[in-house]
Each structure stands twice: as C-alpha cells, then as structure tokens.
C-alpha cells in the first residue's frame, strides 16, 4: 500500500556471489539513523628535508555501515515475531544470521541490508547487545543492538569495479600480511595467471615470500600470460 511503513530487511546468503537467500530478518523498529563511512588509504611519502608530504594512492578502503536496532517485547508496539521469550528469540535469530560460523563456508553468512536507498552487501564486523528492561524472572523485554557492517565483494567484482586493467598504466601495490602474488594478480587483472610475469618484472627470487610493506609494480597487460 502506498505510504505504508517499510522496515529494514537483512538477507543472509551462503555464497559470496549473493545468488540465493537462505535467511531473512525484518527489523522490528527501523533505526533512527545510520552512518555510512568511506575511506581512502594513502602512502605518506615525504622526502628528507622537504616541506611537505606527497601522499600517493594505495587503495580504497572497505565501506562501513553502522546503526542501532531496538527490539521491544513490552507490548508497546506490535511485533512480527513471538514475544513469549521476550526479545531472546529475535536476538538469537539475528546472531545465527550474522555471527555464527557456518560449517560449509567456514565463516558467518554474507549479508545484504535493504532499506530504501540503502542497498549494502556486507558481513558483520561488530555486534554489541545491551539489555535494558526485564520481566520479574529476568527475561529480557528490551534490548539495543549496536551493529557495524563492512562491505563485501568478490575479487572478480572488485577487479571489474576498479577497472585496473588499463593497458597503458603500471600499478603500484603495497603488500600486506597474508597477500600472495597470485591473489594480487587476481585483484589487479582479474586473473591470477600473470604472477610469474609480475615476479620477473619486480625481480622476485621467490614469489611465495612477499614482505609486508614492499611495493610491487604491476605492469600493463600486453600479449599472453607468462
């Protein structure tokens, strides 16, 4: 019905391509506000004796969305779920969707937040539950869930979005702990097969041992894979 209240929906997926929903939760009370943070990481380079720095682009950081959710089982407002156990059941449902590690994928589920213009593919970064009202037996009747989500996309999607395959550009990338050369090639080119060419271009004796903090040059794509 036109003008009817639209509640925020959280959909959970067991595949990183967000191809099929496996669970859904409609929030009881829409958040009063939310923050959507963006960031860009720069390398702060400054030559000795210079009067200022010349920061160079490193990477676009993950976006974050944060807000507070209120769940209230006091009867003040109608709720879509049973309140026999106060707010316990809906909080347990939220935790199963967002926090619990799934055996098949070895991590919590992938998530999508949907609320009007907010369409955010993500994973949960932080959850804090504050219980504020109780029945005489201790059953919680009201709670505030403070949540933070970080954006998620597959390496293929990130590579296509960044469009770093420009044939006339060389890209500098700073190595972080856990990075691998095939993985970095996949991120830059959308294909890991170029790792030998990149290793040769950077004079790497052992591409398996990347030192965090090292800068690697990813040359323009031309010709076949090495």
Descriptive report:
The chain is α+β, with helices and mostly antiparallel strands. The protein folds into 2 domains: 9-153, Elongation Factor Tu (Ef-tu), domain 3; 156-218, LysM domain (Membrane-bound Lytic Murein Transglycosylase D, Chain A), CATH 3.10.350. Helices cover 15% and strands 34% of the residues. The protein contains 4 helices and 11 strands. It has helices spanning 88-98, 155-162, 181-189, 195-201; strands at residues 9-13, 21-26, 34-37, 40-43, 56-60, 64-72, 110-115, 118-134, 140-151, 171-174, 215-218. Strands 2-1-7-8-9-6-3 form a 7-stranded antiparallel beta sheet, with helices on one face. A hairpin with a 5-residue loop joins strand 8 and strand 9. Helix 2 crosses helix 3 (181-189). The longest helix is centred in the middle third of the chain and has 11 residues, at 88-98. It is elongated and about 70 Å long. It starts with 8 loop residues before the first strand and ends in an 8-residue tail after the last strand. The model has no long low-confidence stretch (mean pLDDT 85).
Number of domains: 2
List unreliable stretches of 5+ residues.
Answer: none
Helix/strand-derived class?
alpha+beta
- CATH class (first level) name of the largest domain: Mainly Beta
How many H/I helices?
4
Average per-residue pLDDT, rounded, comes to 85
Could you spell the SSE succession in H and E letters? EEEEEEHEEEHEHHE
**Distance between termini?**
59 Å
Number of strands: 11
Supply the CATH architecture of the largest domain. Answer: Beta Barrel
Based on CA atoms alone, the radius of gyration comes out at: 23 Å
> DSSP strand (E) fraction?
25-35%
Q: What is the overall shape?
A: elongated
């Amino acid at each position: 019905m036109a003008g009817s209240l639209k509640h925020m929906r959280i959909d959970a997926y067991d595949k990183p391509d967000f191809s099929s929903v496996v669970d859904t939760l409609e929030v009881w009370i829409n958040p009063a506000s939310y923050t959507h943070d963006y960031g860009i990481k720069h390398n702060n380079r400054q030559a000795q004796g210079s009067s200022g720095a010349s920061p160079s682009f490193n990477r676009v950081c993950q976006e974050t969305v944060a807000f507070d959710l209120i769940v209230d089982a006091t009867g003040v407002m109608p709720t879509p779920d049973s309140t026999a156990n106060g707010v316990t059941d809906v909080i347990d449902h939220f935790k199963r969707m967002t926090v619990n590690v799934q055996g098949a994928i070895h991590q919590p589920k992938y998530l999508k937040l949907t609320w009007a213009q907010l369409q955010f593919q993500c994973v949960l970064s932080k959850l804090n539950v504050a219980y504020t009202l109780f029945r005489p037996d201790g059953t919680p009747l009201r709670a505030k869930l403070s949540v933070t989500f970080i954006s998620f996309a597959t390496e293929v999607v990130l590579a296509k979005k960044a469009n770093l395959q420009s044939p006339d550009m060389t890209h500098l990338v700073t190595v972080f702990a856990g990075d691998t050369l095939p993985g970095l090639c996949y991120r830059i080119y959308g294909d890991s097969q170029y790792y030998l060419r990149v290793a040769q271009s950077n004079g790497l004796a052992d591409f398996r041992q990347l030192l965090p903090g090292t800068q690697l040059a990813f040359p323009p794509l031309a010709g076949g894979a090495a």
